[in-house]
Design a protein that fits this description.
- The protein is α+β, with helices and mostly antiparallel strands and 294 residues long.
- It is 27% helix and 37% strand.
- It folds into 2 domains: 4-117, 3-Layer(aba) Sandwich (Rossmann fold), CATH 3.40.50.10330; 130-285, Tumour Suppressor Smad4 (Sandwich).
- The chain has helices at residues 22-29, 47-57, 69-81, 96-100, 107-116, 140-149, 155-167, 229-237, and strands at residues 4-10, 35-41, 62-67, 85-90, 119-127, 130-132, 135-139, 173-179, 182-188, 190-194, 198-200, 203-204, 216-221, 247-252, 254-259, 263-267, 270-274, 277-290.
- Strands 1, 2, 3, 4, 5, 6, 8, 9, 15 and 18 form a 10-stranded mixed β-sheet that branches. A 6-stranded antiparallel β-sheet has the order 14-13-10-7-16-17. Strands 11-12 form a two-stranded antiparallel ribbon.
- Strand 8 (173-179) and strand 9 (182-188) form a beta hairpin.
- Helix 2 (47-57) runs parallel beside helix 3 and helix 6 (140-149) crosses helix 7.
- The chain starts with a strand and ends with a strand.
- Bound molecules: adenosine-5'-triphosphate.
- Adenosine-5'-triphosphate is lined by residues 11-15, 42-45, 47, 67-71, 74, 92-95, 154, 200, 269-270.
């Protein structure tokens, strides 16, 4: 059998977890009859994309993100356009896409999934031309992602501490939306554009989303008073938001959003500053990714 060349791109800061021993762990558990392995560590934001592009243009067939959704986004954006295969060893703070793909959070089990080389195609989305694979958002979640980027505490604890601090001062905004030709006007706490069901950490904003259905879900979280936030949190943690009075969910392929002022957006949890007009589209089957056999 011809071996596949596989590159593991390791983000040393993601999830706030130490990763020096990861190459040795992978060496022990990887199926060396199937793969020739190489390893790279990222040194700065954007480095994973550079390393992935270089590897895809050489003779690497599989490129594995060892990190969270931000690392996956950088690598998957290159891998999908260059027709290669993405693998994931989850080491992020939220690990939204890995959880949606049922990839185990345990590194050894995730390596065993890579050994099976079961490849599935999933959709991507684009937001003003940038790819996302898990979730993009505008409003409160974009505010959190911008604050989290400069935060020292990563992991779930980092998100919760920040969320509680920021929610007290956050004001809902007014949005004009067009989803597959139908116009809507809404005041919202946030607009989350879902390819998968969850942000990460099993916080499910869009329980009915499917990664390969050719659709995105626009999740409009209504302006919520502070005393209703525990209910919203309960509904998200128990996959009930599709039946909630606090969230409206509309599926679509092409989505335009106009907001009152330029501000942050997030793309797979990474913040970007953008203008008032946001154009979103689904790219069906854009990414080949290794998943667990299901
Ligand atoms: N050596 C480095 N030093 C600082 N930042 C880095 C380095 N390598 C990569 N990065 C950046 O780290 C950021 C966070 O990575 P990632 O999103 O994978 O982890 P996370 O935010 O902890 O997890 P999640 O997205 O699952 O919540 C990304 O924006 C990435 O570009």
């Amino acid at each position: 059998m011809l071996k596949s060349n596989i590159l593991f791109i390791i983000n040393p800061i993601s999830g706030g977890k130490e990763k020096h021993t990861i190459p040795a762990l992978i060496d022990v558990h990887l199926d060396h009859a199937k793969f020739n392995a190489n390893f790279s560590f990222t040194s700065y934001m954007g480095h994973a994309a550079e390393l992935a592009e270089e590897a895809a243009n050489k003779n690497f067939d599989v490129i594995v993100a060892v990190g969270g959704d931000g690392t996956i986004n950088e690598i998957a954006s290159k891998v999908s356009s260059l027709g290669k295969i993405l693998g994931i060893i989850p080491f992020g703070s939220g690990n939204g896409l890995a959880r949606a793909l049922h990839i185990p959070m345990n590194a050894i089990k995730a390596i065993q999934i890579i050994n099976q080389l079961n490849v599935q195609r999933i959709d991507a989305g684009t937001l003003n031309g940038k790819y996302f694979f898990n979730m993009a958002g505008i409003g409160f979640d974009a505010r959190i992602s911008a604050a989290f980027a400069g935060n020292k505490t990563r992991g779930l604890k980092g998100y919760i501490t920040l969320g509680l601090k920021e929610v007290k001062s956050y004001q809902p905004e007014h949005y004009e939306l067009e989803i597959d030709g139908v116009k809507y006007e809404r005041d919202a706490f946030m607009l989350s554009i879902a390819n998968s069901t969850q942000y990460g950490n099993n916080v499910h904003i869009s329980p009915k989303s499917l990664l390969g259905d050719g659709l995105l879900e626009v999740c409009i979280v209504k302006p919520v008073s502070l005393y209703k936030l525990p209910l919203l949190a309960y509904e998200m943690l128990n996959s009930k938001t599709h039946r909630s009075n606090l969230v409206e969910i509309i599926s679509g392929r092409r989505i335009s959003i106009i907001r009152k002022k330029e501000n942050s957006v997030h793309i797979d949890g990474e913040p970007f500053f953008m203008g008032k007009n946001i154009e979103i589209a689904v790219v069906p089957g854009a990414l080949k990714v290794i998943t667990s056999m299901k």
